[in-house]
Each structure stands twice: as C-alpha cells, then as structure tokens.
Task: structure prediction
Amino acid sequence: MAIKIKTVERKLKFSKTDEGEYRYVMLPEMYSALGQEKVIREAALRSGVSQGVMQTCWDAAGEVIKAWATEGHSVALPGLGTMRFGLSAQSVADVNKVKSDIIRTRRIVFTPTWT
Result:
C-alpha cells in the first residue's frame, strides 16, 4: 500500500527573530473528507452486501471502536495499523492537583503496519 505524497517549499523559522530558510518538505496529499454515506455505498459495492446491512455493520464497528478505544485499548484498523487515544498533560507535585484542566493536548496515536 502506498500513500500519495507531495513536496512543498516552505520557509522554516525557529524563532521570531530568525529570518528562516526555504526548505522542501514532504506532506501527504490531502483531499476532501469522504462522507459516511459514500464510504458505506462503496463498501457495500465491494463486498456484495446491501447498503442497509453495511450501515448496520458500520454502526456496530463504530460502537465497538469507540467503547474499546475510550477504555484505553489500542484498536486495529484493518490493513492500516492500530489507533489509540493519547494525551499530553502538565506534571504536578501534589496528587490532589491532578484534574482534567492540566491536560494540554488530546490526540489520536496511530501506529501503522507496514507490509
């Protein structure tokens, strides 16, 4: 499996006073987001099942992924790898100060399976 990549010239600066340098960077080719209906229609066509059955399977898979990922599991994405939720938080010396407001960023951690 390959991913489409493009090269873009960007001015890289590491501080406000830095004049920066132009460098070439590689980025994934991005298209518009595909709607759920289009994905279900295409999956139904490729698998030979009806769109109604595919919709039911899609909803069930979504519920399983949501439940397991929010419980802390790393969930397999067929043919791609695994995903899990992660976060970055401020450290504190007192356990009583551990609250959700010390979370700086929330993210999805994706680990690809390269074959």
Remarks:
- The radius of gyration is 21 Å.
- The chain is about 30% helix and 35% strand.
- The chain has a mean pLDDT of 91.
